Amino acid sequence: MLELTQQIVNGLSLGAIYALIALGYTMVYGIIKLINFAHGDIMMVGAFVGYFSLTLFGTNIIIAMLAAMLTCAVFGVLIEKIAYRPLRNSTRIAALITAIGVSLFLEYVTIFLIGPSQKVFPDSAFPVKAYDIAGLSILNKDLFVFISAVVLMLILQYIIKWTKTGKAMRAVSLDQEAAVLMGISVDKTISITFAIGSALAAAAGVMVGVYYNTVNPLMGIIPGLKAFVAAVLGGIGIIPGAMVGGFVMGLLETMVSGYGNSLYRDAVAFGVLILILLIKPSGIFGKDTGEKV
Amino acid sequence: MQKNNKWIKFATEVIILTVLFSLVQYLITAGLLNQYYQINLTSMCINIILAVSLSLINGFTGQLSLGHAGFMAVGAYMSVIVTNMWDYPFIAGLLAACAAAGLAGFIIGVPTLRLKGDYLAIATLAFGEIIRVTLQNIDYVNGPAGILGITKLTTWPWLFGATVLTILVVVNLINSSYGRAIISIREDEIASELMGINTTKYKVLAFVIGAMFAGLAGAMYAHYFYIIKPETFNFLKSFDILVMVVLGGLGSTTGAIIAAIFITALTAALQAFPAIRMILYALILIVVMIYRPQGLMGNKELSLKTFGRIWSGRK
Amino acid sequence: MSLMKISNLYKSFGGLSAVLDFNFHMEQDELVGLIGPNGAGKTTVFNLITGVYKPDQGSIIFKGRDLVGLAPYTICAQGVARTFQNIRLFNDLTVLDNVKIAVHKDVPYGLMSAILRTPHFFKGEDQIEQQAMKYLEIFKLDKKKDELAKNLPYGEQRRLEIVRALATSPQLLILDEPAAGMNPQETQELMELIRLIRDKFNLTILLIEHDMSLVMGVCERLYVLDYGQIIAEGTPQEIRSNKRVIEAYLGEEVE
Q: Can you give the residue ranges of every domain in chain A?
């Protein structure tokens, strides 16, 4: 029982990271029906910004995270403007292929600029401490990841529910044409969605750096795919769904590595994805909709 | 008259292919084609097989698959098991590779091809990765380390035969009533189904045939490059093939062939700069999608007739 | 026996009833119209018959066989063909190929024949071409056989859709608002075309239409659908004077 609780505790921080990344996927899909394949790579860029902020400028972890979020928000907006906007009226397949292109571009430009090897996230920025609470061992970095992720999610909920921007985002994702008629600027709203989604991914990137202690140019691929699975699991386009999906994926993964074969850890995510797609493609919280003829 | 044309066209094709085959064979036996060129020639043929088979799925059927490397892996491993571990001849290995990859295509295709567009793309990507992770966990084939010291059986006649066979099957299929049924799915799946086309059956058919040839390419690869490991067939390899199909034009066999040749040459030229090569791939995907989403050739084909027209135009 | 008999058909979408206890029959060689205000559920009925949607309840007996639960392509093979409200041609294919696809279900050669290019294949292809051309000639589209479907003018696209449906050699042809977007002149031509089709191909035709003049002029029997339910049935004359129909159409012109 204690061991299970320990596994759950371990899974929560990983789940929080997946949830943060999944939010970006789901927000973008909700608004322009695009699987932003490059989203995981935005996370990677965020991790590197955080890394350089810590090593070159010696900032503390909070500043590093904010710097990463700001940089990636700008990146996200630029990527949307340059690569996705011209394709807004073409097929979803064309947009997906472009997104794959953007993903490869970010990965290999990073490799080109700073080399393919992994970098160790500075330990000094975050001296690891373990707390012993009721027989459970809880690391301070797990706490840090979990708490900052929850804070960010609460801020996001506030923005979406209570601000004008959030209302515009919801309106555009429901019906773009109607939103235009209501005087909402679709372009601006989409830009803001990319900015917010990318900022969350960047925060997640810095957390991944803290969590795994290393960063590398291809680090975005697998967590990106897992977060995507989380988004689909919760029902893509549905924000609470992405959070729940993220935690489920995190817990599942720690369970599989804890009790099963850790070599299959990555396969589990894909297995889950295929199961949802086959059984209920609209996800846990989604509604099934048929095609209009 | 029309019948005559048919035979003239057929004869011309046979002559061109024979000349091409003999020429390269001569260059190899005469030692005029050094190791470097031979390797690139092999890669080129394998890439053509991969691109043409994927274009059947992505281009003609309109079902975006991102798991082609998975089928290539199945074929590669199966053929090596048959030839190297069980000591059967190469042809048995090739047939087993096609059969195994085709079976994998069937098992994966039946459930996933119900999905549409981007969902299908992600599901096939997931299946491709599952194939890779599974291979990593099978001790019989050495897990992540892969299989080393595979006998080199892929020679120019085999390679040429496999490439021509792939192109022939895909082109003949596409230019038949079955091919039209397949293309109609890309054009409008619902209309196609309501015009009496069993769309599920034809999607699976295209997927299985595509997978079989990916398996053949895998077998050719394994028996040329001595070593196979699961990592070789990850989804970046699938993206490589996708780049060729997208660049060539979704729905053009000749486009896929030209793009495969071009990409192979580009890869060879940039061998020392792998990052730049990948950046170029990325830019190709983005720029083609934004400025020429139909690819170089669109759904047009380059044929002898086209050359004929250019020729008479010059005169 | 009726050619088609639909009993107690129900369909709802997310709690919203689109078709409610729909009962309907058609005899051989009849020309029946299904009319009703916008959103009455007419196209949903077509989608249920052709297998695009599955009904929640009810049966659709066609030539003695229940169509419910069959895949659309099987229903087509049973002899039901249709057109679409918003044209759904194979846009990037030629006019000829559009029709050839519709005759594919009776393809005279096997897959291996096609791949190996046997004499059987070439003979079969000639057969398919002749058959497709036959239909195109009747509808005067033969001269445009090599044009892409998307490049045809609107009226011809509508016509090509009907040709394509006919090429599946149906017994029941379902036309979903064939006159949508047509001017009175074109509508008149369409009426003649529909009569010609029925006489020439010995068909039973079911048509949805908004254009009252077309329905009244060409149909022998009408069903009126409102809120997913049949509210009236009868000859055009009877429907014209039916009080419930006039109520349902209140605000719309019934001439």
A: 2-279
pLDDT at C56: 94
For A135-177, write each residue's pLDDT tens digit: 788 888 888 899 999 999 999 999 999 999 999 999 998 888 8
Token readout for C47 is 């989608």
- What string of DSSP letters covers B92-118? HHHHHHHHHHHHHHHHHHHHHTTS-HH
Q: Which of C77, C114, C168 minimises the CB distance to B178?
A: C114
Instruction: Enumerate the residues of chain C whose CB falls inside 8 A of the CB of residue A290.
Output: 13, 53
A:B CB pairs within 8 Å:
117
Report the 10 Å Cβ neighbour count for C247. 10
Indicate the CATH number for domain A2-279. Answer: 1.10.3470
The interaxial angle of helices A221-234 and A239-259, nearest 10 deg, is 120
pLDDT reported for residue C255: 46
* Best mutation target, B58, B61, B122, to test chain A (most A CBs within 10 A): B122
pLDDT tens track for B82-120: 999 999 999 999 999 999 999 999 999 999 998 888 889
Query: In chain B, which residues have their Cβ closer than 8 Å to the Cβ of C88?
Result: 188, 190-191
Separation in Å, CA of C255 to nearest CA in chain B: 34
Q: Given A98, A116, A270, which is nearest B285 (Cβ)?
A: A98
Query: Comparing C-alpha atoms, which of A191, A253, A264, A257 is closest to residue A19?
Result: A253
Chain B nearest C-alpha distance from C207 (Å): 17
Residue C9 has phi, psi (to 5 degrees) of -85, 130
Instruction: Kindly list the structural domains of chain B, giving each domain's residue range(s) and its CATH number in brackets, ordered by start.
Output: 2-25+40-312 (1.10.3470)
